[in-house]
Amino acid sequence: MASQQSMNSDSSSMSKSRSRSGSMPQLLCYHNDITPIRVVKLDGPTRGKRFMAVHIGLTCGFFKWADESDEVRELQFKLFEKDTKIAELELENSLLQEKVKELKQTNLMNRDQLEEILLENSVTREEMYTATANKKLYVFLLMSW
User: What is the separation of C-alpha 80 from the centre of its chain, rounded to a whole number of angstroms?
Assistant: First the structure.
């Protein structure tokens, strides 16, 4: 237990100095917490190898070897870009839906205006027909007299 605490304090101080130098990018765990850089202290083939993981007490489960961090960071950035693009497309979609509603309303108003014009046109034709018929009747009456 004491060795784990000393390991954590060693790796925490190491991650702070590394973070300041900017040599390793900071990664976020599954809970959006910054993952410190730690060093494997146990004997074995990975001794001395750097890794990133959240505090041991947390149950996040995030773990990446430090040399894999660039790939993870790249994927996180791509995911962010995709989320941004989705948000932009959703905004564009809502704007286009609003435009469609406006155009439908304009279309309905134009149809109403067209119906009014057609009605006026038919009334005008009827008046012209009546006026022409009356004129012909007057001419016929005048000629027949």
Answer: 11
Name the percent of the chain in helix, strand, coil, to the closest 5: 70, 10, 20
CB 43 within 8 A of CB 51: no
Beta-carbon contacts of 13 under 8 Å, excluding residues fewer than 6 positions away, are none
Instruction: For the beta carbon of residue 35, count every other beta carbon within 10 angstroms.
Output: 22
**For range 118-143, the mean pLDDT:** 89
Report the relative pairing of strands 63-65 and 50-53 from DSSP bridges: antiparallel
Query: Euclidean distance between the first and final Cα of the chain, in Å?
Result: 132
Q: Residue 113 is encoded by which pair of tokens? A: 């205006």
In the chain the beta strands, taken as DSSP E runs, fall at 27-28, 34-35, 37-39, 50-53, 63-65
User: Around Cβ 104, how many Cβ atoms within 10 Å?
Assistant: 10
Of 99 and 23, the structure prediction assigns the larger pLDDT to 99
Cβ of 53: how many Cβ atoms within 10 Å?
19
